[in-house]
Amino acid sequence: MSKYNFSEVSELLGEKMVTIGISVSGGGYRSMLSGAGVLSAMDIRTPNSENHLGGILQSSTYIAGNSGGLWLVANNLLNDGLPIYEALRTQSFATPLIEGVPDVPVSQLRATLDAQSPREYNASVWETYSVFFNQSDVEKGSLAHAFLDTFFKSKSQDNDQSIDTAPLGRKSLDFYKDLNIEVRAKKTAGFQVSLIDYWGRAVSKKIFPQGKKAIDLCLSTLVESPSFENFSQLFPIFGSVERMPGVTELSVDSHLFEFNPFEFGSWDSYLNSFVDINFLGSKLENGFSTIKTKNEDYSVCISGYDNMGLITGTSSGLFNTVFQYVYKMILQMEDLSSSLFSMLLRVFGITNHPTPDEILHPEYALYSPNPFKAISPPRAKGRSISDAPSLFLADGGDDGQNLPFHPMLTKGREVEVVLAFDATSDYENYPNGTTLKQTAKRYHASNSSLRIPAFSFNGKLKRIFPVIPSSEEFVSKSMASRPVFFGCNITRDYPSEILTDAKSIESADTSMAPKLQPESKNIHPSLEELESKFDIWHDYQPPLIVYLANYNHSYASNTSTFRTVYSDTEVLKMLENGYNVATYNNNTEYLRCVGCALIQRRAAKSSKFVNYLKQCKTCLEKFCYAASE
Asked: TM spans, by residue (predicted)?
């Protein structure tokens, strides 16, 4: 074969096709636009893709995204099967994502915002409130004047113009007033809101396609779209990280949540539970509604809480830094008049006397009430959320795992290959493999508050994520400039624990305790001890990872994560470069090797792939990563 031959692979596989998952990292429009090019390369409907990677998209089952990658997932879902390159060409990216706020150095803002501890910040806020309403009107040259002048001024107008007369200022103010009006219904209904509610509406206005910007659009209703009903739509997964304010948790211990059109929950050992996404917003205890009716057999649940804008905004909450920055600046304006202060707070949906949640944690999405109240799953391990009245959810890459592998490493989904596009900003807005290392740390951890999944293989207990190169090796071997396959050889590429009783670990019979015997120690833990540390999966093999890094193949695609204005020409060039990332500039050897990667897991279990794998040997040696001895 000179190139990837989809029909030939299909014949070898027979009735059961390979289960393919696609993961798209965060990275703002950089990830969304470049990722769209990657998907287009795999779409059989894209011109000239038929003899390259075309068809892989139609053969894939799952797609997951974080932050900017999630915008692509959401856009693809909302466009109901329209080819992604066509869909994006109908959208304009010529105006800022957040009205009145140009591209800004948000990483610097983040450092500024994080300089104060929550307790210190809380005290300063309330001190501001106590003296605020006795202050004089805004004086020219003051902090407040400088802020308003910067935030609402028009480049074409004199800086001394008022908000009411400056065209851009009025447009910006109206934009935020509209956000407030649109979120007001949720507050009026008695639900708590956060700045993410407003951010979610901003995302809806700018990211969602025409006809899909409605305030009441819910994720659960999209199962009724034609492309979903006829199974031509990829199953979308929206990632997020649950946070306990004041508690620091890195990727090893973080609580990973997912939203999909049917459920909301987590696979992690602290919860391992899901709730029907239709029931978000309901007062539940142990999975049952606490709002009773006169008929004891019936209770009341809430629907409509799974707002598409809120969920999309939740997983891209890093951008809420801008909102948070503006919000904190407003609170620190001690020289504002009470009337102007009140007006600005109302623009951002905050009252003159906000709740502690609104003050302390504006960077998190607030999901209240907690749908997992009083849930105590068997064998739970990790920080419990069963007593929490509300859930605080952060950006899907908040723990450093910017690529959402977690949904693809679930036994029940049986994913065999993950096509992972990484547009993370590690060095000069290009990736250097750091997000891969963060996920590896999680699944290779020796001490975690969670129970880590592991699988049995040839008498060994193996971790479910492959060995990953260091950032130095990643850069020195130019792994960002070419596709890399991780986990090709299960024996070699996955960390393992040596077991003295292979039969017992390979079987599901828990009456026999397998022995774990690290080479350096003579330890024989009991099955109970093993299972307290690991979730042991039998008859499971983790997916091979086809890693595609954002790289300048045809265009400098290392734009800022927080750049939100692109011309039509720039959009096209970002798409084209993403296409070239996926095809490795139409490299013939690579295009053939993708077929090898797709069947690698299946081929290891069947002799009918022998001849095919002989053709794969050379290319796999080239593209597969093998850890240095």
From this structure: none
- β strands within 139-234, DSSP E: none
All residues at 6 or more sequence positions from 553 whose CB lies less than 8 Å from its CB, including other chains: 577, 580, 581, 585
> CA 124 to CA 434: how far, in whole Å?
36
Residue 221 exposed, middle or buried by CB count within 10 Å (0-12, 13-18, 19+): middle
Distance CA 69, CA 550 (A): 12
- Element spanning 547, H or E: strand 544-549
Q: Which residue has the tokens 């001895």?
A: 629
pLDDT block averages, 10 residues each, the chain of length 629: 53 77 95 96 90 91 95 94 87 78 50 46 36 35 40 39 47 75 88 86 89 89 94 95 88 95 96 95 91 86 93 79 55 49 49 47 84 90 93 90 96 96 92 94 92 91 95 91 96 78 45 37 60 89 97 94 88 96 94 91 75 82 83
CA distance 364 to 318: 9
Q: Which two tokens stand for residue 100?
A: 């009145």
Using only C-alpha atoms, what is the Rg of the chain? 26
Helical residues (DSSP H) of 189-283, grouped into ranges: 195-207, 226-229
pTM for this entry: 0.84
Give the separation between CA 204 and CA 175, rounded to whole angstroms. 13
Q: At what angle do helices 588-603 and 6-13 cross, to 10 degrees?
A: 10
Cα gap 299→279, rounded to integer Å: 12
Helix, strand, or coil (residue 327): helix
Do 74 and 396 form a contact (C-beta atoms < 8 A)?
Answer: no
Beta strands in 198-283 (DSSP E): 235-243, 255-259, 263-266, 273-276
Beta-carbon contacts of residue 127 (< 8 Å; ≥ 6 apart)? none
For residue 231, give the 3-state DSSP assignment: coil
Among residues 383, 396, 397, 390, the alpha carbon closest in space to that of 366 is found at 390
